[in-house]
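Researcher: I'm preparing a figure for a lab meeting and need a structural model of a single chain. I don't have an experimental structure, so a prediction will have to do for now. The sequence is pasted below. Please return the structure as tokens so I can convert it later.
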Amino acid sequence: MDETKFIEEKKFQQLVQTMDPGSKLLRTWRVSGGVSAQVTAIEFEQSDGKKKKMIVRQHGETDLKRNPRIAADEFKLLQILKSKRLLVPAPYHFDSSGAIFPNPFIVIEFIESKQKDIPRNVNTAIHELATSLSNIHKIKGSNPELSFLPKQEEIYAEKLEKRPAIIDESLNEGRIREMLESVWPFPKVNKTVLLHGDYWPGNILWKDGQFIAILDWEDAALGDPLADFANSRLEILWAYGMAAMNDFTNQYKSMCTAIEFKYLPYWDLFAALRPASRISEWGLDERTEKMMRERHQWFVSRAFEKIK
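Model: Understood. Here is the structure written out token by token.
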């Protein structure tokens, strides 16, 4: 074991003993899929002799610059959502002292899930995705418990105000920004609700074809449900294709009859801004990136057609 690995293992040993004095670290391993945070799985023997697995999420400098309290906020939100019986990992521990790791971190439930557990029937997956998102959006943004979360409209307003030095014309960023700048802010037609902020198939866990958990709540905010919905539509288009996106759209609409969808094309354009100048940094293979760019182009064109 090299020195860096040895030091890291000692830190995780310190962590498990902090949570449960007398426990013993058995192993650690990095979990794939962590982009905005370093995600590590740990297994340890508890003081009662039982083995336990957990996940340690350490947020990076980019997230901390955006929100210095991101770890504390995510931990608090998971506590609230767990109490409301949403399918989220149980939060176990939060530390911002710097005594173990330099950056704030949270420890959450390890949930067993494998690629083979994803439903083979796309229609089943789409139904579960729409149902779960609609359940998230039933949580009212007026709930005082959630007042610590950022306001989505403020995040989007800042995004429009801070034009990048180089516009990504390969994804129509200039045209999208011009349209959004001409109509922002949108009229308030929907009630403010809880938003996941990054609801896509990669943040969903399945077990034997059953939907079991929603991960990665660090981008949660309060705002119009269409902000979440539009982003999910693009993500599902990328993951499953046009027919699946349309099915997801129809199912979500049937579950959320109180929502006004008039401004959905504009929210779609906000969703389409997210990969601008970033998609080439996602480590995609050439074929996948080409597919995603083509589907993004179709998504943007359709939004503009709806606006006319």
